[in-house]
Amino acid sequence: MSFPEGFVWGAATAAFQIEGATTADGRTASIWDTFCQVPGAVVGGDTGDPAADHYYRVDEDVQLMVDLGLHAYRFSTAWPRIRPDAGPVNQAGLDFYSRLVDKLLENNITPWLTLYHWDLPQTLEDAGGWANRDTAYRFAEYAESVVGALGDRVVNWTTLNEPWCSSLLSYAAGIHAPGRQEPEAAVAAVHHLLLAHGLATAAIREQAPDAKVGITLNMYPIIPANPDDPADTDAARRLDGLQNRIFLDPVFKGEYPADIVEDLEPYGFSKHIRENDLEIISAPLDQLGVNYYAEHFVSGHPAPEAEAPVQTNGRRPTGSPWVGAEHVTFPSRGLPRTDMDWEVEPDGLYKVLKRVHDDYPSIPLYVTENGAAYVDAFEDDGSINDVERRDYIASHLRAAHKAIREGVDLRGYFAWSLMDNFEWAEGYAKRFGIVHVDYDTQVRTPKMSAMWYSQVARGNALAATVAP
């Protein structure tokens, strides 16, 4: 099962999840540094230091990529490392990423840079965070600083990673930093993140006219439990709007979906939209990153267990990210699940790619994240035979290949993640890496999935015998 010539095979990480060194060389606190100190916010009370100690192990980690035969490396730059407290540029922070980029290029690995993967400077959160319109302009300044330093060597730029998480999961549900449960702030954050994307796109274009600019969205098919039940179809409409269309439509159509604007009017959504905002947000892009992990199978009816008391197991209470649709439930379909308790449904990736191809302007697509957390165990010979992870990736690559066969312009795939790391509110309890990290010794051990993925990347093809 061959992929098109020039198809990009890579792996992805995020700064806060792997770097550690949270106070080194001028870096100041991000919202995640602060959130990690909140009792019950992160499993085990884990923090982002030392994470995978990548800040001090860049050479070793780039060599890992070389050994695996990766074409590209998707990473993020840390805002509080480059502009601590959203203030003046910290040259030491820029120098770190400059060395990383040079090291990648020396080894024929294409750097794929994401400007924002959730590490907002705490100083800006203290001033309102993404609920404050001013944050979008501070982000544009930060983007300008990074492009000014790296734009001569980095071609592929992503403005934001998964703004759904940075807004609804973080400001409505309180599951991610900064942990607020304020629906009005969450819908403001949706718009201000998109405005930040548009302003950053302009900043990149101005300084690096040949750059390829995109945004990465986490998109999921939303499936009504009973397509003949109006309550279920309305639940699916609402969640599709909040998960997918509220980001796709303004970026590619220059407008918000009217039904979702109406749904969010009780929370003051439209008051944040000013003249020319949508023109800024919908500036033409060169590519779109698609992150996919699971489908959402939804119902507008209460779940049978809804009356049971919620067990937090020491975790702080959290809310729903679905502003205006908090009543929606997620019945089980009995599908296999990952260690994150997410359903495994590879065909959902095909559906997402095909939908974007059909419903939005033709734009090159890249799967910028796809992978699975499973419990890993060392064999007697020191290897990690992670068959489930390999099969998960293989089955999703089959779905991607199906989309390509049907005319979808998919140009690359980045496995999530290159290595085990700090998995946000799950701390170090969940492992997504194709490379194992011993958090006590920081020893890296490629898992079986890494060796298999290396063969796929080198051959630009998927063996027909794997994961039917």
UniProtKB/TrEMBL annotation:
The keyword Kinase does not apply. GO terms for biological process: cellulose catabolic process. GO terms for molecular function: beta-glucosidase activity. Substrate binds at residues 17, 117, 161, 293, 416, 423-424. PROSITE patterns: GLYCOSYL_HYDROL_F1_1 (PS00572), GLYCOSYL_HYDROL_F1_2 (PS00653). It holds the Pfam family Glyco_hydro_1. Its EC number is 3.2.1.21. GO terms for cellular component: cytosol. Keywords: Carbohydrate metabolism, Cellulose degradation, Glycosidase, Hydrolase, Polysaccharide degradation. The active site is at 162 (proton donor), 369 (nucleophile). It is an enzyme of class 3 (hydrolase). The keyword Ribosomal protein does not apply. It catalyses: Hydrolysis of terminal, non-reducing beta-D-glucosyl residues with release of beta-D-glucose. It comes from the Bacteria. SUPFAM superfamilies: (Trans)glycosidases. Gene3D superfamilies: Glycosidases. Belongs to the glycosyl hydrolase 1 family. This is Beta-glucosidase.
